Amino acid sequence: MHSRAVRHITLLLATCALTLFLNLGATRLWDRDEPRNAGCTREMLARGDWVVPVFNDELRTHKPVLLYWLMMGAYGAFGQNEWGARFWSAALGAGTVLMTYAIGRRLFNAGAAFWAGVVLASSLQFAMMGRAATPEMLFAFCVTAALLAYVYGAFAPGSHDNDDALEPARSRTPAPRAWFPAWPVAAAMYALMGLAVLAKGPAGLILPTAVVGMFLLVQRLPAGQAWSLSYQSKVGPVKWLEPASADHIRRPGRLVRSVIHASASASAMHSGTASASSNAVFASSSPTRRRNSSSAMTAAGVRSVTPATKPSGRSAAAATRAADASSSAGGRLMQPR
């Protein structure tokens, strides 16, 4: 392992120690889920039953059993207290941060992977889940592990994995399996999905399958249509779906400005297309319809001047008098009687 990777992992673990493990057992079990999960684990230990979760002598079917198994092991190591109840949530949170770093390093580079891990470890909701005796962090860990197995099985390592790489892998070379890993990696991925099901139910299978399936669907689209929307024929591919360049990584403001510029260009092109379509419809209408529309606009007090021809002085004066008469008549109608 390179020295830069060791330094990144050390800093990420230090961040997790501050956000996840500091004063982990100082506060009492709170909310309603923590006491129920801890009480169910204590009753399972007292009965010596590792299969059937029971709380207050009643079958507890709210969540699967994997969290209770981990908490039973922590109770045996640290005692039946708040630290033991929350230990595995904090430890799995740190593991999720490290797996996020590994995914970012394989897909982008060491710098992007490190900052992704820092952002995740310092996020408020993530820290709350990592400090609670609930199955959310266990579920996140299993799903992230399944995605990590897929990324390492489907993406071949490149030169960006070394310490000097700054540029993301634009020309990513997939493994020679049509974006799907070999069967040992696929079996490991499905096994991790099974653990996610044991952590929080069917969502452990649905969520990673949806992520990988959508990625495979996008990759199998015909050439030129993978990152296209309705404006591609006018303004080209959507630029903010492409990987950021090294200059954007060093100067994030340029990336934001490029996204705003691309969005404004698409909006302007859409407005211009709509305006041209409406003008074509009006021009292709019958002369009677155009005369009726012009009469309605004149009656409403709207004066239209064609940019190509300038009205004569007599016609302009007549139009001005007509507009003044229309406005004065409207004013008399609006006056109270």
Please sum up the structure shown.
This protein is an all-alpha fold and 337 residues long.
Entry keywords:
337 residues; mainly alpha; two-stranded antiparallel ribbon; 14 helices; 66% helix; disordered C terminus
Describe what this molecule looks like in 3D.
The chain has 337 residues and is mainly α. The protein has two domains: 217 residues, no CATH class; 44 residues, no CATH class. Helices cover 66% and strands 1% of the residues. It has 14 helices and two strands, in the order H-H-E-E-H-H-H-H-H-H-H-H-H-H-H-H. Helix 2 packs across helix 3, helix 3 crosses helix 4 and helix 7 runs parallel beside helix 9. The C terminus is likely disordered.
Shape: globular
Calculate the mean pLDDT score and round it: 76
User: What is the distance, rounded to the nearest whole angstrom, between the alpha carbons of the first and last residues?
Assistant: 91 Å
Q: Which structural class should the secondary elements be placed in?
A: mainly alpha
Element order: H for helix, E for strand = HHEEHHHHHHHHHHHH
**Amount of beta strand:** under 5%
| Uncertain residue ranges | 163-172, 226-246, 280-286, 296-310, 329-337
Strand order of the largest sheet: 1-2
Tally of strands? 2
- Estimated radius of gyration: 32 Å
Helix percent reads 55-70%
Tell me which oligomeric state these chains represent. Answer: single chain
Our count of helices gives 14
Number of domains: 2
How would you characterize the largest beta sheet? 2 strands, antiparallel
